[in-house]
Amino acid sequence: MEKTSVKTKILALLVVALTLTSCGGGGGGGSGGGGGSSIIINTDRPSEGLGTIGDGDTYTPAPYKPILGLVGVIDSSFRTSKLSALSGRINITNKSTTGDEELGNGYTHGENVALIIGASPYTNLQIDAKGGYDSVSKGISISSTMYTALNIAGVKIYNHSLGNKPTPPNTTTYPLNFFQKFYIDHAGSGEALFLWAAGNEGRNSLTGVLPGADGKINPETGVKSTVNESSPDGRLPGVYKELENGWIAVTAVNSTTGQIAYYANGIGDDAKNWGIAAIGDYIIGSGLVQGTSFATPAVSRAAASVMVQYPWMSAEIVKLTLLSTADDKGVVGVDPVYGWGLLNETKALGGPAQFDKRLTHANSAGVHETSVRINIKESDQYLYSASFPDGIKFKYDNAKYITFSNPIKGDAGLILSGSDDNGDGEYDSTLILSGESTYVGKTSINNANLFINNNMLKSPEIETNANSSFIIAGNDKITLNSGGELVITGNSINVRVVGDIINNGQFGTYDGNVEIKGDVINNGWTWFESKTTKIDGDLINNGGDVDVWQGIVTVTGDYTNTASGSELEMSINSRLIVTGTIDLTGAEIKVGIGNADIFNASNSVGLSITSTILQSPNNIVGYTLSSQEPETANTDVDPYLLINWTTSAGTTTNIIQVNWKMLDTLTVATDMMTYVPASVKNTGE
To answer: Residue 293, SS3?
Structure first.
């Protein structure tokens, strides 16, 4: 196949520095620009035009096996002798080094870019560098061969510290040839991330200046640019809409002022939804270099770091994480100068901070979905065997790999999907949200487990689908579909669910104090094991199991059983208090040990103890005093524990109690004893 080449000048700006600026802080730390950068870089050439891309090449997708923390860099040239700091972490393929100029610090443009990416705390972050210096154009020649090789190597992050002069892209200058097809296949699918420098023409409306007559930046003119216009490469999703799923345009800020650098192009109004800013001035070796060329690898480095932190994460969610955790700059919100704001690499390592519809998956027409899609393959998570609340098991060597610690806001929902890669019937794909989540969209869980260890106040609907679990607080409605599981872990704090919970799978509470501001509708298995659970609504059992294993569950509405064959399981140390009515028609009531500590010092053998397990100010429907006795005790429990039923006196029943005593001090099995109300015996048995 004939190669198609793209020639571009490097996006860099020569800075004559008689003295070096101060340095300190982190290049990608997102501190807001109060301090200088730990690495400051001088560059020497403004960007020039890309050659027109031919449309003769065809594109055939190649096998794709992503490698964690691998960044592909297409740049000028790279010398092993200059990159000893990256020994063992960089693979170099050079087209040519002849004639490539060193910048003022003794490194080529590409070498500076590589060193910025390599300044990561993750030692397993790798670089695949393709040198494309063209001695004729004195720019960079990009070929289809480069992209193909990077793809086969497993690259998911492509750094482009290059680009065209800021002009609107279109299908004439960017026809649907190999390059665009490659971008659509990888960026459009959200499986790879392409980062582009915004350019150094000073096209920003804050500090930028218009170029002089010779096309070079003239910082002495003092004439501010009135537009924000980045390179057409960074704006390409405006033409091919789905590219937005894996595209980031990067502008530069000054490390001292925290404002956009005078030389930098603003992101632009048409690219602001996939734009971000990063520090663009660094000291490498003995020299100062700066430019959007060097802001871009800072973002690429952060992307790779996030991917190492979350090895299961798609490039699309990496992009969402970087943009949603950026520190807001300039006009409040997403703006045409800074895009989403200044890169905050430290915050990004805690996962997304927003589920925003501007960051959800876009189709070829540019229409965004209403929810963020997070897919976690079981095999992509680090596995080990560990016990979690009440028999639920997770298999990860470190919870940090599956925990989003940032508070998450936004107008979008969440669709979490997992898998059973090893075929054992257990769906171990798990995500933990430990920050306060106030996003207002629907939460849907498919073949996965979602744990929330803090308040989640805004999700209007939570749906747990087949083979999934949800342990959370939500808002408006939480729907758990067949096989799904939701567990709300109070962890000694108050957890509040604002909205209904519709459970077609598994829903439970564990530890702490849980408040559900809505109805709980059970069509599967619902269990309560928190210290207190308050349901500010109705508890409806439509044929599944409801278990109260520990603590007090208070229902301000009614408890209604709608189908025969349902079960209500109570522990001898738990209580269900219903302000409205309790209708047990068709239900089978079971009582057992649950989590009761029956062998503590106060419970001696033979001591009779009475516990109230159901209580209502109104009559308990479906229960008659004429048949109170439990069925024959289970043989595993009978030798050690005797449980008998009692009820309130009178013609109505508004409490149900059990009287129990220890018969022995041996370890007691946790099997339940069964009681069937008369209503079932009279009609169904």
So the answer is: helix
